[in-house]
Design brief:
Elements (H helix, E strand, L loop, with lengths): L10 E5 L2 H4 L12 H7 L16 H14 L4 E5 L2 H4 L9 H16 L3 E7 L5 H5 L8 H16 L5 E6 L1 H10 L10 H25 L4 E7 L3 E3 L4 H24 L7 H8 L10 H5 L5 E5 L4 E3 L13 E2 L14 H15 L4 E5 L17 H19 L4 E7 L18 E3 L6 E3 L1 H12 L4
Helix pairs in contact: 3-5, 7-9, 8-9, 13-14, 14-15
The structure holds beta-D-fucopyranose (FCB).
Length: 450
């Protein structure tokens, strides 16, 4: 097999999420999400912005789908805003809210673009946040109910379903480090949230399966391959801990129905006691037969464990500061190949998709209005080559979604980081494809790296 080219059935798309692009946060019966509240808190968002307007995708979705078609996209991954479709978190569906997604899906299908739905990309209804959010075990049932209702409404047309986007971020950034909504800074809360997110994944998978038999379903994990800075024992130990907390704590439950045993003592220590929030039967519920695993890949982690001469512990993840994106993330395409091989060999998912990959770079329109984002093209080329390498080595990789279709609200960074293949002028809402969008269009057409 010649893997210089992507197979004809390899799926190329782009991804977004509801809160990052939709705007229209207080129309047609949508209730507040924990992100609306978080944005109101002083100092939470770097540029003091919020999601009220964002990319106005709620108003402009038809044009956006037409743009996707012009760019040859074969699939579009987006998320449903739970507070838009079920404003009380549980109970009745908001017809106006669901109608928006029905129209979006119909528009996509009409354009020949496969809709991929993420059920949870972080905009939890504030009413559920007030009841403890992901710390309250009841939420797992609410999430299953929400899933069941969404599949009942959209499952005739949407064939690809993702339960959660990036459980590590939900738990760690939201409940442990306080960088994301709801902004808690408590280690034990972080582990509890992670547990409930994974448990709700299991229940949602069951809800999807019992509703219809013709759906493809799975979860999206943000995985970062770790490398020890040296062979020294402390560096190796730092690597084990990083990989255990970042990757295996999520992969093992959903694929093996178990927790990584080497991590349990440290997690108990952080939690100040036994993991009493893990009930018997939970782990086997988390392990459901998935049709695919989605991986969001941005960078790698280099781990160092030894103390320096001053007795200071260096940060766990040190980045090689040679080639960084505007996020400060190292460009590390080899990490993608390594990660795909590792996941394939260790967990044997039925299929793998890269559900997010991309880079923030700030190239703006030049005098002629053109956006020469050569750095993004370079980034994308390298990661496309890394995928071809993985395919050559036998990885069952079926598709790739670029993050992101549009410049958008980048969470705690606000609008300062631009991940889009399409430039958004936030004043006029004008969209301008960057050079990289045309490059991607040609890749999709030609199947070889332009
Ligand atoms: C991922 C998120 C996505 C976006 C990218 C840059 O962690 O899933 O919403 O913010 O990072």
């Amino acid at each position: 097999m010649n893997w210089k080219a992507f197979p004809q059935d390899f799926l190329f798309g782009a991804a977004t999420s509801s809160f990052q692009i939709e705007g229209a946060t207080d129309v047609d019966g949508r209730s507040a999400s924990i992100w609306d509240q978080f944005c109101l808190e002083e100092g939470r968002i770097a540029d003091g912005s919020d999601g009220r307007r964002a990319c106005e995708h709620y108003l402009r979705y038809r044009d956006d789908v037409a743009l996707m078609k012009r760019l040859n996209l074969q699939a579009y991954r987006f998320s449903l805003a739970w507070p838009r479709v079920m404003p009380r978190g549980t109970g009745p569906i908001n017809e106006k809210g669901i109608t928006f997604y029905e129209r979006l899906v119909d528009e996509l299908l009409g354009a020949g673009i496969e809709p991929w739905v993420t059920l949870y990309h972080w905009d939890l209804p504030a009413v559920l946040g007030e009841r403890g959010g992901w710390l309250n075990r009841d939420i797992t049932q609410h999430f299953a109910e929400y899933t069941e209702k969404m599949v009942a409404r959209l499952g005739d047309r949407v064939k690809h379903w993702i339960t959660h986007n990036e459980p590590w971020c939900i738990a760690t950034l939201g409940y442990r480090k306080g960088e994301h909504a709801p902004g808690l800074k408590d280690p034990r809360s972080g582990w509890i949230a992670a547990h409930h997110v994974l448990l709700s994944h299991g229940l949602a998978m069951q809800a999807i399966r019992s509703a219809r038999s013709d759906l493809q379903a799975g979860i999206v994990l943000n995985l970062t391959p770790g490398y020890a800075a040296s062979d020294s024992l402390p560096d190796q130990e730092a690597l084990r801990r990083f990989d255990g907390g970042f990757n295996r704590w999520y992969l093992d439950p959903v694929f093996k129905g178990s927790l990584p045993s080497d991590m349990i003592a440290e997690v108990e220590e952080e939690c100040g006691g036994a993991l009493d929030f893990v009930h018997s039967g939970d782990l086997s519920l988390m392990r459901q037969d998935m049709d695919f695993l989605g991986i969001n890949y941005y960078s790698r982690g280099i781990l160092r464990g030894a103390e320096d001469a001053a007795g200071q512990k260096p940060p766990q993840v040190i980045l090689d500061p040679v080639d960084l994106t505007d996020m400060g993330w190292e460009v590390a395409p080899q990490g993608l190949t390594d990660l795909l091989l590792l996941v394939q060999n260790e967990y044997q998912p039925k299929a793998l998709y890269i559900t997010e990959n991309g880079a923030a770079y700030d190239e703006a329109p030049d005098a002629s209005g053109r956006i020469r984002d050569d750095r993004r093209i370079r980034y994308l080329k390298k990661h496309a080559a890394a995928m071809l390498e993985a395919l050559e080595q036998g990885v069952n990789l079926k598709g790739y979604f670029q993050w992101s279709l549009l410049d958008n609200f980048e969470w705690a960074y606000g609008y300062q980081k631009r991940f889009g293949m399409v430039w958004v002028d936030y004043e006029t809402q004008e969209r301008t494809p960057k050079d990289s969008a045309y490059w991607y269009r040609d890749l999709i057409q030609q199947r070889i790296i332009p």
